């Protein structure tokens, strides 16, 4: 980040084990320029077991801080203040347990209900893929709640894996997020999610990232999404959709739109 704001709020939806906010925290403070900055991280999940695991993983990190840290360092302060809270991404505003109600617990009044960066690795496996493609080792040993959306949006059992993305994108709009990164199953789902993001007309850039997005310029391609050219970065399978508003593009050091 070339111009990261001094106090950044980061939200991870469907946080599971909490690995994403914990990794974000680790990578953020690896950069020397960020060591005096503050980040406020919140992970949200519907599962009590997942929240217990995420808090356990946070405690493990706190028990083994680098020796160079002082007790009141921004890194340790931010790590100790990561919050993992219960919330249901699929619930609309006004319904009990919806994400915004959950965020009131940690961010206070409605005027403060914004986040700079929104991340999510939601359940994205379709009912059909779960039955026919998902490996037995995953089907038998990983919680289905973390893999397949719990509600079907329509009779199309291929697209029912997309159920979380409209809700997440709506939350990104409501929370005025400047940067979003959403994990997906494959390039086909990435195209569908990129299309949803572009229909919002919020984002200065929308990109699709493969498994290894940090490649050279030869690994940049473009595909057509609803008549617009969208950049696809890296090698491997389609893995995530990345989007940013104009304010976010300043943090990223970007000077042009990606579609």
UniProtKB/TrEMBL annotation:
GO terms for molecular function: methyltransferase activity; nucleic acid binding. One of its GO terms (cellular component) is mitochondrion. InterPro entries: DNA_methylase_N6_adenine_CS (IPR002052), N5-glutamine_MTase (IPR050320), SAM-dependent_MTases_sf (IPR029063). It comes from the Eukaryota. One of its GO terms (biological process) is methylation. This is Methyltransferase domain-containing protein.
């Amino acid at each position: 980040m070339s111009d990261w704001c001094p106090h950044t709020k980061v939200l991870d939806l469907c946080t599971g084990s909490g690995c994403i906010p914990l990794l974000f925290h680790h990578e953020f403070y690896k950069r020397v320029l960020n060591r005096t900055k503050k980040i406020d991280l919140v992970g949200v999940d519907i599962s009590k077991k997942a929240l217990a695991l995420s808090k356990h993983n946070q405690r493990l990190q706190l028990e083994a801080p680098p020796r160079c840290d002082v007790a009141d360092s921004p890194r340790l302060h931010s790590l100790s203040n990561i919050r993992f809270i219960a919330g249901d991404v699929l619930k609309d505003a006004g319904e009990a347990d919806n994400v915004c109600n959950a965020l009131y617990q940690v961010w206070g009044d409605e005027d403060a209900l914004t986040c700079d960066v929104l991340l999510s690795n939601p359940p994205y496996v379709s009912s059909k893929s779960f039955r026919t493609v998902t490996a037995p080792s995953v089907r038998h040993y990983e919680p289905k709640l973390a893999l397949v959306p719990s509600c079907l949006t329509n009779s199309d059992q291929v697209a029912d894996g997309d159920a979380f993305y409209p809700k997440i994108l709506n939350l990104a709009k409501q929370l005025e997020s400047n940067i979003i990164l959403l994990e997906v199953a494959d390039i086909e789902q990435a195209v569908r999610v990129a299309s949803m993001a572009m229909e919002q007309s919020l984002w200065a850039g929308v990109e699709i990232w493969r498994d290894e997005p940090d490649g050279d310029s030869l690994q940049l391609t473009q595909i057509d999404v609803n008549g617009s050219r969208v950049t696809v970065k890296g090698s491997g399978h389609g893995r995530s959709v990345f989007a940013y508003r104009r304010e976010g593009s300043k943090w990223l050091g970007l000077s042009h739109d990606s579609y």
